[in-house]
Amino acid sequence: MSDAVIRMAMVGGGPGSFIGPVHRMAAELDGRVRLVAGAFSRDEAKSKAAARGYGIDPARAHGDYRQMLAAEAARSDGAQFVAIVTPNHVHFPVAKAALEAGFSVLSDKPATATLEEAEELARVVADTGHLYGLTYTYTGYPLMREARAIVRRGDLGAVRKVVVEYSQGWLAQAVEKTENAQAAWRADPAQSGLGGCIGDIGVHAFNAAEFVSGLAVTRINADLNSVVPGRRLDDDCNILLRFGEDVPGVLVASQVAAGDRNGLRLRVYGAQGGLDWCHERPDVLTLNWLDRPTQTLHAAAPYLGPAGRGPARLPTGHPEGFIEAFANIYRDFATAIASGGGLGGTPVPTIQDGLRGMAFVARAVAANGAGWVQL
């Protein structure tokens, strides 16, 4: 049945994790997914402690993900898919092992730590035939999906410009040299991969721009910087884009914008008008028209189309946020598993989105300061 409860195992999300509990809450929000097992930490005692915290049987918690995959594959009530919530360098080996062991995979972004790994993972996904999705969280917001539908309907006219920015200030100082574990792995090339800010939040901005505009980036001109002295990876990105044939765009991502919190903002301009969406007010989508008054759309309102109204859980005026956006991706992924269908008819980001994200990171880092290059 398409509404069956889907069993999930998690890799990562142990003590001190930020994103692991977020994934768990989102997965279980609609009652469609249940966490049943995991390799939450490489320390087996910590993994079992995490299991107790999540309310699952500690006997199904392991210190090694390969051991967990083997144990779950042998059970009649074993997990049906694996959520990956680890630092970037673990994404590829876990995803590959899980897919080859017969599990579908829903991974935190980016797909992998390198472009070469992403290319190999795409082959594994194709060879195994199992589902693979990415939690590009912002694609789960109802009004982001409504914005995408508006552009595709041609309401704005032909797209002429795309501007996306994602600003944070939490890395404005060298907090990776303190006991901040979240900063430490993001600033470590061995764990983060070749990109710092660009791989952490730049890929979100890149994905959001392509998701809503419906256009693929074809060329980039990158200026990546390490602003904080001694930081080995970029913490500030300024990138000119070309979409499709020759539609201009701008992507700005920074983690040293002191005082900023989680400032993702997307604007898409067409021949007849533009749209404006901001993550810090996600229940509002503004449409600015060339020759008529500005229009404000509200989440869950009855005038929205199916793309924007369907994901909402509460009446208009009752804000939904980050957890709910995550949950929309989990709900769509669970429905695809239960129905036996693919992800093609859903907004869930796939391995192709992951591959494009890693190509974006790799090309920007390799051609930093070199002018225009093909993506």
Written description of the protein model:
- Helix content is 35%, strand content 23%.
- The chain has 2 domains: 6-137, Rossmann fold; 147-316 and 351-374, 2-Layer Sandwich (Dihydrodipicolinate Reductase, domain 2), CATH 3.30.360.10.
- The protein has a 9-stranded mixed β-sheet, with helices on one face. Strands 2-1-3-4-5 form a 5-stranded parallel β-sheet, with helices on both faces.
- The model has no long low-confidence stretch (mean pLDDT 97).
- Strand 4 (104-107), helix 5 and strand 5 form a beta-alpha-beta unit.
- It contains 12 helices and 14 strands.
- It is an alpha/beta fold.
- Helix 4 (91-100) packs parallel to helix 5 (115-128) and helix 6 (142-153) packs across helix 9 (197-213).
